[in-house]
Amino acid sequence: MFTAQGPTFRELAVQALSSVERGYDLLAPKFDHTPFRTPDLVLDSVTRALRPLGPFSSGLDLCCGTGAGMGVLRELCRDRITGVDLSAGMLAVARERSERDAPNARWVRGDARALPFSPVFDLVVSFGAFGHFLPREQPGLFAQVHSVLRPGGRFAFPLPAPARPGSRGYWTLLGFDSAMRVRNALWRPPFVMYYRAVRPSAVTEALRRTGFSVELYALPELGRLPDGSPRCRMVVATR
């Protein structure tokens, strides 16, 4: 799962016993050499699906990490793009890389549950971040996104189909979530990373209750399940 340039087992153990913020600060220099970094195939698929919905002016990458999702905004937004993340370490890596790839990018350290912006964005994207928020936090998180979008602005993110019960993916996620719950019961501070809690039906319902209209777009490049349904869809929530 990890390249030779990725973190060692000892480094991962130290990171897992830290808070979410501190853990990602420690992981930042090697983050892009782990499976946690959103694959380019996903980023490219989302870019293609969003392009017909533009043009967009300003964009925000929510929980941007080292900035992989900023490439989507560079392709789609005509003006300034912004990345926001809680981890100073992840932002430092992103900022260093952007000096070459995205000199117009702005990087802001902030909590997604209390975004430090007025409604100035036409597009907000996010990749792989929702597992760091408890289900009860999702409505507040989505309300924050709603508050920073201009009227008609879009909030877009990929949402994989739930793993089929009994499948390898199902047992992998169940084992990971169970291990995290045991860790958090025995150790402080907690490290929230519960990806089984990101249920498509609950996410879309929370978005609608926040005031978004919601559409789902298949991402065919990411494959289909045995029943023919997409393995991954893009959620587009419009203010």
From TrEMBL:
The keyword Protein transport does not apply. The keyword Transmembrane does not apply. Keywords: Methyltransferase, Transferase. Residues 60-153 form the Methyltransferase domain. It comes from Actinacidiphila oryziradicis. GO terms for biological process: methylation. One of its GO terms (molecular function) is methyltransferase activity. It holds the Pfam family Methyltransf_25. This is Class I SAM-dependent methyltransferase. Transmembrane segments: none annotated.
